[in-house]
Amino acid sequence: SATNTAYGIVSMLRHAGAANPRVLLIDTDSQAHATLVTTGSKDYGADDSLYTVLMADRHNAAQTLLNCLVPSTWDADLHVLPASSMLEGAERELNGLAGAPYRLADPLNQITNRYAAIVIDTRPSFSLMTEMGLIAATDAIVPVEPRYLETVGLMSVVGKINEVRDGWRQPNLRVSGILVTKMNARIRGHKYLLDELKSHSVLGPLLLGVVPVNEAVSYAHQCHQSIFEYAPTAPASKAYMDIVAKLVRTLAAGGAA
């Protein structure tokens, strides 16, 4: 998940002695799951959330963004721009505002140097909010469960991301990895689909890692903790840390998140 990835980057940067280990997590989903598990609350609204930033005067949006940031209960160096249920209707409101697709990217560009990495958590479906997240990003990570691992569907997702890159003239945007989650090696269908992915000429090289199905992840989120803190020796914890290490190397080679 984006939450464990963001926290893992903080931990890895600090362990490496980075001068700036701060990471920003942006929750763009109106269900605010990432917000809840990283801050212990989803009670954010018109004055203190991503919605506030998107509706702000564009000249003041960067300062508004900074004003809305919340330190995560997981780690002081993990900052969160919370989502709110108001994002559900935000797309209709944004349709009448100038420069709507850039209302996340523009303020983010002004505060990027404060963070070692910025992780934007989006819905799995494509919408204006998803497009805004992609326009603000340089690297897209596609998480997928084995049951949805059909290569045709994944190629469609990659194609849509490339359409955003080309249509909105964002040459730095790229698909940097596919992350397989909730993998159960004992299920024959899971193994078959994973093997198919690995052998695919386009998708295979994009495989960032595989996270095994592990109840510890759900329990950790219920306790508003990262998997690394809740169950550091769990298989999912090790898998996420390996993935974060690979991701950090990828980003270092190709640019910031």
How does the SSE layout of this entry go?
Layout: H1 2-15, E1 23-27, H2 33-39, H3 50-55, H4 61-68, E2 70-71, E3 78-81, H5 87-94, H6 105-111, E4 117-121, H7 128-135, E5 139-144, H8 151-167, E6 174-183, H9 188-199, E7 207-212, H10 215-222, H11 227-230, H12 235-254
Parallel strand pairs: 1-3, 1-4, 5-6, 6-7
Antiparallel strand pairs: 2-3
Helix pairs in contact: 1-12, 4-6
Percent strand: 5-15%
| Sheet/helix structural class | alpha/beta
- Overall spatial form: globular
Strand order of the largest sheet: 2-3-1-4
The CATH architecture of the domain at 1-137 can be named as 3-Layer(aba) Sandwich
Record field, number of beta strands: 7
Task: Outline the low-pLDDT stretches.
Answer: none
Question: What top-tier CATH class of the domain at 1-137 fits best?
Answer: Alpha Beta
Total helices: the number is 12
CATH topology of the domain at 1-137: Rossmann fold
Q: What string gives the helices and strands in order?
A: HEHHHEEHHEHEHEHEHHH
CATH superfamily of the domain at 1-137: P-loop containing nucleotide triphosphate hydrolases
For the biggest sheet, the summary is: 4 strands, mixed
Question: How many whole angstroms does the radius of gyration measure?
Answer: 18 Å
As a percent range, the share of helical residues equals 40-55%
Intertermini distance: 15 Å
| Mean of pLDDT | 91
